[in-house]
Amino acid sequence: MHSSRNKKGNKARHFVLGLSALEMLIVFAAIAIVVLISVPGSTQLLEKYRLKSAESSLIKSLELARIEAQKRSSTVIVCPSSNGHSCRRDNNWDHGWVVFSDGNGNGTVQDIELVESFPAPHERITIEAAGATKSRASFTSTGLLGDHDAMTGQFTICMKGSSAAPRLFEVEADGWIKQVPPENETCDFG
């Protein structure tokens, strides 16, 4: 009888220790959330992360298009898209974009041509495109095709209501992407 009491006691202690560890994890998670919310600068850090994330996604899609154009020896296009299946005609990149191989040269996305679609970045992110990438970025095996009589394209990524510096990069005529440091550039939402 004495040994059965020890087994019950051990089980009860084991249960209490497991519950205490779970409680400790919950307490640590709550503290981390409170610290993240209350620490000055955490909002700015989050905004910078969101800007960097949007920039990385857009650069990834442009590099994917350049590589696919070289592999396929065909034109591959990156264009703004809100549904992941067709190009927007208003040059608004804020809703996402799509990469597709334009094998038939008609400039529209067919299901068989779709390479990858990219969702919209955070709702406060705005993306302005200019030059050869204003309405779309078209890549051939030799590089970026110029649109709007421009040889290079530029992207500016901003966050509405933020003091964070914009993210800037250029797509050169040969298709390579070059980071541009923001020198006195601000986001104008007026």
For this entry, give a set of tags.
elongated, alpha+beta, 2 helices, 190 residues, 2 domains, minor pseudopilin epsh fold, five-stranded antiparallel beta sheet, four-stranded antiparallel beta sheet
What's the SSE blueprint?
Layout: H1 2-38, H2 42-72, E1 76-80, E2 96-101, E3 114-119, E4 125-131, E5 137-140, E6 143-145, E7 153-159, E8 167-171, E9 177-180
Antiparallel strand pairs: 1-2, 1-5, 2-3, 4-7, 5-6, 7-8, 8-9
Gyration radius, rounded: 25 Å
Count of separate DSSP helical elements: 2
Low-confidence stretches: none
Average pLDDT, rounded to a whole number, is: 85
Number of domains: 2
Strand tally is 9
CATH classification, class level of the largest domain: Alpha Beta
Q: In percent, how helical is the residue content? A: 25-40%
Return the string of H and E elements.
Answer: HHEEEEEEEEE
Can you give a write-up of this model?
The protein has 190 residues and is α+β, with helices and mostly antiparallel strands. The protein has two domains: 1-39; 43-180, minor pseudopilin epsh domain (minor pseudopilin epsh fold, 3-Layer(bab) Sandwich), CATH 3.55.40.10. It has helices spanning 2-38, 42-72, and strands spanning 76-80, 96-101, 114-119, 125-131, 137-140, 143-145, 153-159, 167-171, 177-180. The strands form two sheets. It has a five-stranded antiparallel β-sheet, covered by helices on one side. Strand 7 and strand 8 form a beta hairpin. 25% of the residues are buried. The model has no long low-confidence stretch (mean pLDDT 85).
